[in-house]
Amino acid sequence: MLFWVLCAVLTAAVLYAVTRPLSAPALSPADDGDAASDIAVYRDQLQELDADRARGLLADAEAEGARVEISRRLLAIARTSGAGHPGRSLAGSTRVRRALFASAAVLVPVLSLALYLANGSPGLPGQPYAARAAVPVEKARIDSLVAQVEARLRDHPEDGEGWDVIAPVYLRQGRFTESAQAYQRAIRLLGETPRRLAGFGEATVFAGNGIVTEEARRAFEKLAQIEPGQPAPRFWLALAKEQDGDLAGALEGYRKLAADAPREADWRPAVDERITMLTKRIGGSRVPAGTGPTADDMAAAEKLAPADRAAMVEQMVEGLARRLEVNAQDLAGWQRLLRAYAVLGRKDKAANALERARRAFATDGASRAALDDLARSLGLDS
Question: pLDDT at residue 165 above 70?
Answer without folding.
Answer: yes
